[in-house]
Amino acid sequence: MKVLSVASEVYPLVKTGGLADVAGALPPALARQGVEMRTLMPGYPSVMGRLGGTGEVVFEYSHLLGVPARIISARVEGLDLYLIESPALFNRAGGPYVDGAGIDHVDNWHRFAALSRAGADIAAGILPDFHPDIVHAHDWQAGLTPAYMRYSGIQRPSIVTIHNIAFQGHFGAQVFGGLELPTYAFALDGVEYYGGVGFLKAGLANASAITTVSPTYAEEIRSAAYGMGLEGLISTRAPVLSGIVNGIDTGVWNPETDPILAETFGPRKLKSRVVNRRAIEARFGLHQDEDPLFVVISRLTWQKGIDLLAEVTDDIVASGAKLAVLGAGDAALEGAFLGAVQRHGGRVGVVIGYDEPLAHTMQGGADGILIPSRFEPCGLTQLYGLRYGAVPVVARTGGLADTIIDANSAALNAGVATGFQFLPVDADGLRGAVRRAVSVFRNPAVWTGIQRAGMRSDVSWDRSAALYAELYASLAPNAPG
Predict the structure, then answer these.
(1) Counting Cβ atoms within 10 Å, is residue 66 exposed (0-12), middle (13-18) or buried (19+)?
(2) pTM over cut 0.90
(3) Which of 187, 255, 296, 472 is the most exposed place for a label (fewest CB within 10 A)?
(4) Domain range 270-456, CATH architecture
C-alpha cells in the first residue's frame, strides 16, 4: 500500500511542535506494517540545504497557484520526501510560519494552499513512479488537500489528522480567489467558515476519515469546551472519527543508549540516574540533596497550564520538593518563575528557552515531570518521562489521560501505576497531585515500582502504526497490502 503524507514540518528536518515528530516517526513505523509512505513538505531553505545535490526534479509546474514551483524527490534522514521548491513561497527568513519577529507570514494562506494543491495533484497521478492509494494530511496547513481532491474529482481516500484543533488556519474571504477553486466551493460543506476560508474546517468536511492523536481527545473535541468552534462539524462526522495515540522514537529516546545523558541506565540500574540528577542541579543552580526533584519542559503558555504551576510553586517548595523549569513563552510567566528563583534560591531553577540535550538530561535525572495542561491532544513529554523513569504528574485530559495510569490504591496494589493524574485542572488539583507524589516518593520501594512500570510501558510507534495501517486498509480495501 502506498500513502502520501502531506505535512508542513517533519522531524528532524524542521520542527516547531509534535506534528513534526509524528510526521517524521510514522513512515518508518508504517514500513514495518508493509505500508510505503512518502512525505510532501515545503522546501524551506534549511531543508533544501540538507539535500547536498542529491535531489531529483520529478515534476515542474508552469505555475502552482500563480508562482513558479517544482517538486523534488529526495531521501533525507531515512525519509522519502517530495519537496516543493518555490523560492517565492518558502525561501525566506524566520520559521515555517512566522518571520524573524515572530509575526505570521502574511501569505501563509497562499503558501499552505500550494502545499495542499500539490498534494492533490500527486493524488491525481502527476508523478510517474508514485501513485498513492491514500492521502494523509496533517493539521490546517495541509487541510485543503481533501478539498482540492474533491473539487478536482480525484477518487482517492483521504485522512486528516488533527494534532491541535486550536490552530485552524482561518483566513478572510478575500483569499478565496487565489485558491483556484470553483466558486461553489465557498459553501458550508466546502471551505467557507464564519464568512472566511477555513483550512482545517475544509479538511474535516471533505476527508474520508478524521483522526486525532488520542482517543480521549477525539471525544473531547466533540464538546464546546474543546472543539474551538468546530465541535458541531466534528460531531456530524463522528462516524469517521477515531483517536490513535502518538508514539515516540524509542531509538532516540532510549535511556540505556542515549549519548546525551551524563549516565545511561535501565529499569534495573535506576540508581545510575543520580548522575543525571546532579547534572540538573548544577545546570539550574539547585541544592544537591535527596529531596524530590520535579521538572517542567514546556512552552510557558496558558494552554499548558503553566499559570497554575506558577501559582503553586511556593507550595511545591513548601512540600519539600525542588523545581527546575525549561521553557519559553508568555513574558509574564517567564517573569513569575524568575521571581520564584529569587524567593527560593537553590530550590527553584529556570532556563528560559529550549535545549534538546538538556531536556534529555532532565528526563533522565528528575524524579517527576509536571504536565498541568488544560488541554493536550496527545503530548509527548509524558511518554519521554515514562521511558526515562521521570514519573509524570499530569492533568486528566486528552492523551495525558490515555497514557498515564494514576497511582490510586488499586493501581498501586496491582503494580501498574505509572504516574499521577489530577482533576479538576486548577491550582488546587495540581497542588494535591504534587502532595500525593511527594508522599509516595517518601516510600522508595513504591516509587521505584512506579518508575519501572512506566519504563515497561509500550510507548513506541508499533501499536499506533498498526492501527493506522488498519485504517488505511479499511479505506482502500483493494490496495496492495
Answers:
(1) exposed
(2) yes
(3) 187
(4) 3-Layer(aba) Sandwich (3.40)
